[in-house]
Amino acid sequence: MDTVKIAVIGGGLMGLSTAVCISESIPQCSVTVISEAFSPNTTSDVAAGVLIPHKFQGTPIHQQINWFKETFDYLFSIYNSAEASDAGIILLSGWQIFQTPPAEKYPFWSDVVLGFRLMSDSELKKFPHYVFGQAFATLKCECPPYLLWLEKRLKRNGGQERAGKVQDVWELYGQYDIVVNCAGLGSRELFGDKGIYPVQGQVLKVHAPWLTHFVRDGSGSTYIYPGISSVTLGGTRVQNEWSLKPDSSVSKEIFRRCTALVPSLEGVQETREKVGLRPTRPAVRLEREVLLRGGQRLHVVHNYGHGGGGFSVHRGTAKEATRLVEETVTLLSNTMTKSKL
């Protein structure tokens, strides 16, 4: 068949990474990303962008390992290239510490990150209220540089961006052959998914260039992630809270918890508050769907619902979504061939 027109809804991490993967893998397609907002005004821009996965309860663990490994390997290849600075990919080492030893001392992702080991007693002395820890190096995507790098890559591959809100997915019928849904929380209204909900996260971005190692409480509630231009201090996880307005009392509590772990943070001068909404559901939705209306068929591929774990698996799920798009292209091609016979 002729050029396949593909619309990707969503200009954040999932939308852009999926659009890039499609544009690299399916040469006979044209890709347009449609979004209300692009970087630096997306939820992805608030995220720390550190690759430390959490478990998606409704997704088989072997699949999650594959997604993480594909993402880690992809970003590590960028880190080992001349693109690293432009893409904002850095290698970050540090500690994950626990007040109570976890059930799994070696998490499912321990073989993917670099140099994973258990912390020694002498290392743990740095954190007197903690009894167990893990040391390793992982990757971090700086935002917005990484999102801007994805945008450049998409355009270099012939893709386009279109600013605007899709009120009804059927608006795209006739304009595009396939719709890829990376709308995150927008899927609640656009596709009637009442199972997706926001988990609000508030963080602080501070200037503390002397910090070069991350520290993460094993509960995930407190973390310090150094980056290129700032250090991210977090955080919060408030379910079903839609507000994007920072709470100064929450900021003070985040700062208190982080300085308890790393006392040198008391010396920071510049602090910015950021709030984002994690698009959360029981499992990532990665599947094909055919919508029907009055004899018309609209082919959709879904890739959304990553919660706070999107950066850790984004390339892996983008590759899976691309495979589903390829299946749909083949289906459309076969349908057109039969109609001509």
List keywords for this structure.
alpha/beta; about 30% strand; about 350 residues; 14 strands; 14-stranded mixed beta sheet
Protein described:
The protein is an alpha/beta fold and 341 residues long. It has eight helices and 14 strands. Strands 1, 2, 3, 4, 5, 6, 7, 8, 9, 10, 11, 12, 13 and 14 form a 14-stranded mixed beta sheet that branches. Helix 1 (13-25) packs parallel to helix 5, helix 1 crosses helix 8 and helix 2 (61-79) crosses helix 8 (310-340). The radius of gyration is 21 Å and the shape is elongated. The two termini are 14 Å apart. 43% of the residues are buried. The model has no long low-confidence stretch (mean pLDDT 95).
Q: Could you give a quick summary of the protein structure above?
A:
The protein is α/β, with parallel strands linked by helices.
β-sheet strand percentage: 25-35%
| Helix and strand composition category | alpha/beta
Residue share in helix: 25-40%
The profile of the biggest β sheet is:
14 strands, mixed
Q: Rg from C-alpha positions?
A: 21 Å
- The rough form would be described as elongated
Instruction: Say how many strands there are.
Output: 14
SSE topology string: EHEHHEEHEHEEHEEEEEHEEH
Tally of helical segments: 8
- Low-confidence parts: none
